[in-house]
Design a protein that fits this description.
The protein has 179 residues and is α/β, with parallel strands linked by helices. It is built from three helices and seven strands; from the N terminus they run ββαβββαββα. The protein has helices spanning 57-64, 135-142, 156-178; strands spanning 6-7, 43-45, 73-75, 96-98, 121-123, 148-149, 152-153. It has a seven-stranded mixed beta sheet with strand order 1-2-3-4-5-6-7, with no helix packed on it. The radius of gyration is 18 Å and the shape is globular. The protein starts with 5 loop residues before the first strand and ends with a helix. Mean pLDDT is 92; it is low at 174-179.
């Protein structure tokens, strides 16, 4: 079961519950549907909409996908999302997450995604967190299984530097806690 993505991009969706009334865009590869008319896909595109929060994400995934627990690729790029919600942590099979072009501003929220055992690709560029000097080191440190970040491969050297960055910052945090 790995058909074409269920494509709900460019639908002017502002609320995920509104997505339920939308018909996915057709692609060159038709998506198979089961007897419940759910799509046999592991990918969902919700990019280029006006989504501000992720309330109802799990229900939206369940509404469209025949096997929602198998979601592997989620594109929420170019929306108006400002937080990395805890709901992502429920997507245990997620491998690719596109969040670029949003309004995410709390870099520590990226740490939440560290519980996703298969996450290997993420995009976060075009968010306010990108302005942080240690942006790339912090994300690579928080997500040790990353192979690609912002459409660029994560190198062995970057992983080493991110690890050093992590240890240095934890040491200074621990010193502050002791004082």
């Amino acid at each position: 079961m790995s058909g074409a993505p269920v494509d709900l991009s460019f639908k002017q969706i502002s609320n995920l519950v509104d997505a339920w009334t939308e018909t996915p865009s057709s692609s060159l590869r038709p998506i198979k549907r089961n007897s419940e008319l759910k799509y046999s896909s592991r990918a969902l595109r919700l990019n280029n909409n006006n989504i501000t929060d992720l309330y109802g994400l799990q229900k939206t995934i369940t509404h469209f996908l025949a096997e929602p627990s198998q979601l592997a690729w989620l594109d929420l790029s170019f929306n108006k999302i400002s937080h990395i919600d805890q709901v992502f942590c429920e997507l245990s099979e997620l491998r690719v997450l596109y969040l670029h072009g949003n309004s995410i501003f709390v870099q520590s929220e990226v740490d939440r995604l560290g519980v996703l055992p298969h996450l290997h690709t993420i995009t976060l560029h075009g968010n306010l967190i990108e302005n942080n000097k240690a942006y790339r080191d912090r994300v690579i440190s928080a997500l040790p299984r990353l192979k690609s970040m912002d459409f660029s491969a994560v190198t062995r050297q970057e992983r080493v530097l991110a690890n050093i960055w992590h240890h240095c910052n934890n040491r200074s945090s621990n010193k502050e806690a002791l004082q």
